[in-house]
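Reopening this one. Same input as before:
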Amino acid sequence: MAHIDYYFATISPYTYLAGTRLEEVAAKHGATITYKPLDIMGLFARTGGTPPKDRHPNRQEWRLQEMTRQAKKLGLALNIKPAHWPTNMAPSAYAIIAAQDAGGGDLGQLVHGLTSACWAGEKDIAQDDVIKDCLSAAGFDPSLADSGLLQGAETYARNLEDAVAAGAFGAPFYITDADQRFWGQDRIDDLDAHLAGKL
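Same output, byte for byte:
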């Protein structure tokens, strides 16, 4: 059975644009997923990336155009300048880590719910009530937002180290157990083809 390590950031627009397509591909091929939310700014700093606000204006302008095009192509609502971005990623990441440990809900829906709250819902995903609403909507106990904070912090930090060691440098980033690496929501079709033995 194939396995995918999924590195992502809850404030990443491209993680939002991925929707739940990774989960659909994994289900199609009987693959398992380990969700590894991380500090994307920390990953940029460690792997030669540049935060969006520090990029050349040409790159910033292209990024906004590309996000708009991709959202239209995927039929997803998107505010390219959301009211609560950037925000503290850690609380939402801790909730995902706690939910993965607890089980019983839909992790793909939780990640999409949180990213959607940021990029389409104009909500601050660092806020406890927003996180609890997303946990509930994905079938998890909302009290998970209040538990396991120390373990969440440790796992969150370890996910960054794991990402660097595994060769990731952006989000979303998918790495298979065969060490095939796919960067970006626009490479999910390539991941699908790889798992099918075509790539």
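So the earlier flakiness isn't reproducible anymore. For the record, The chain has one domain: 3-195.
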